Automatic annotation (TrEMBL):
InterPro entries: HMG_CoA_synt_C_dom, HMG_CoA_synth_N, HMG_CoA_synthase_prok, Thiolase-like
BP GO annotations: acetyl-CoA metabolic process
Active site (UniProt): 79 (proton donor/acceptor), 111 (acyl-thioester intermediate), 233 (proton donor/acceptor)
Molecular function in Gene Ontology: hydroxymethylglutaryl-CoA synthase activity
Start and end residues of each Hydroxymethylglutaryl-coenzyme A synthase N-terminal domain: 2-163
Family membership: Belongs to the thiolase-like superfamily. HMG-CoA synthase family.
Lineage: Bacteria, Bacillati, Bacillota, Bacilli, Lactobacillales
SUPFAM superfamilies per record: Thiolase-like
Name of the protein described by the UniProt record: Hydroxymethylglutaryl-CoA synthase
NCBIfam families: HMG-CoA-S_prok
Binding site for (3S)-3-hydroxy-3-methylglutaryl-CoA: 143, 242, 275
């Protein structure tokens, strides 16, 4: 029985800041951002969007009534969750109107959370082939204004429906994975911003890729030549390239050129959204699927997932016949085309807007946010969520 990605979609806030403008405002050469880390634009989340609403909006794009009837598990990978007890998955389950007979759980291991969700979903589907699992990767990366990590911020969510007989990507069962207790990136519960040892984290990312790739080759006998493309977790778009280039010299020239070209295609969306933590790898996959026009069914795709702290995994899948029909390329083109560019001053003001830390009541202006699902405010220490589409149906 084949199990894999049946549907995939993503959502990002309706605002962004241009990285060249941000560099100038910070007294940095623009090429440091646009070439050095490979970022052009950075999505900016308004106060009316959080990881729950980003994920729910992304899911609205792809779910139909058949999905709602068959989804009996919601797995939410995030490292910017909103509650230390209640899972973000429960909120999304309600906002999407999924059936009550379902499990809903939040998963945390830095940027690896969504990958963990996929692997757990595969096991569930193997036992219950009639079921579907909704896997969400949603985060808002925040390091603070004028910090060293500011240029690798971002916001967005990727969602996937995992099922038997998948129509996009059938996942193989030859995964290679590795865990090691390291302190390259972490965020204690008392801190609003993460701590990072940047040089060490970059080194560990490459090291983990090398190790799981070696393990994968020994397990399967496959090599780089067997892949049409390899997608990477991308906190910034140059990160994956640092890992890939360490292995490319072991391939023939045509394989090197193919993988380099397809790597660049796979970074297109990430370059203009920024870092979305748990969803970054799958935004890279989506970029490849929608931007490479001659991608063919039967092509083998490699995926490298990395979550600081750290867990890494290399796994693979095969594109299915007619996979293009399951994509939402036009919707995603519209999402990018309709975003509003912010000045650096506007971005800074929006960044400083946060929900009350003392649980006090606040009502937010959701009319200024075009998204269907928004944070409407807070009351009695509870976030209030609104699904505008549901309100329209009720009227």
């Amino acid at each position: 029985m084949e199990i894999g990605i049946d549907k995939i979609g993503f959502f990002a806030p309706h605002m962004y800041v241009d990285m060249t403008n941000l560099a100038v405002a910070r007294g940095v050469e623009p090429e440091k951002f646009t070439i050095g880390i490979g970022q052009s634009q950075m999505a900016v989340a308004p106060i009316t969007q959080d990881p729950v609403t980003l994920a729910a909006n992304a899911a609205l794009e792809i779910l139909d009534e058949e999905d709602r009837a068959q989804i009996d598990m919601v797995l939410f990978g995030t490292e910017s969750g909103i509650d230390n007890s209640k899972s973000a998955a429960v909120y999304v389950h309600h906002l999407l109107g999924l059936k009550a007979e379902a499990r809903a759980v939040e998963l945390k291991q830095a940027c690896y959370g969504a990958t963990a969700g996929i692997q757990l979903a595969k096991g569930h589907i193997a036992l219950h082939p009639e079921s579907k699992v909704l896997v969400l990767g949603s985060d808002i990366a925040r390091y603070g204004l004028k910090t060293s990590g500011e240029s690798t911020q971002g916001a967005g969510a990727v969602v996937m429906v995992i099922s038997a007989a998948p129509r996009i990507l059938a996942l193989d069962n030859d995964n290679a994975f590795l865990s090691n207790d390291i302190m390259d990136f972490w965020r204690p519960i008392y801190s609003e911003q993460a701590f990072v040892d940047g040089k060490f984290s970059n080194e560990q990312y490459v090291h983990f890729f090398n190790e799981v790739w070696k393990q994968y080759k020994e397990k399967t006998g496959n090599d780089l030549a067997d892949f049409e493309a390899i997608c990477f977790h991308l906190p910034y778009t140059k990160m994956g390239w640092k890992a890939l280039r360490t292995e490319l010299p072991n391939a023939d020239e045509s394989t090197q050129e193919r993988l380099k070209a397809n790597y660049q295609i796979s970074t297109a969306y990430n370059r203009n959204i920024g870092n979305i933590y748990t969803g970054s790898l799958y935004l890279s996959l989506l970029s490849l699927l929608e931007q490479k026009e001659d991608l063919q069914a039967g092509a083998k795709i490699g995926l490298f997932s990395y979550g600081s702290g750290a867990v890494g995994e290399f796994f693979t899948g095969t594109l299915q016949p007619g996979f293009q029909r399951m994509l939402k390329k036009t919707d995603h083109e519209n999402l990018f085309a309709t975003r509003r560019e912010l000045t650096v001053a506007e971005y800074e003001k929006i960044f400083e807007e946060t929900l009350p830390k003392d649980g006090s009541t606040i009502e937010l202006d959701i009319e200024s946010d075009p998204a269907a699902i928004c944070v409407a405010g807070m009351q009695d220490n509870k976030r209030l969520y609104i699904n505008k589409e549901h309100l329209i149906e009720q009227k």
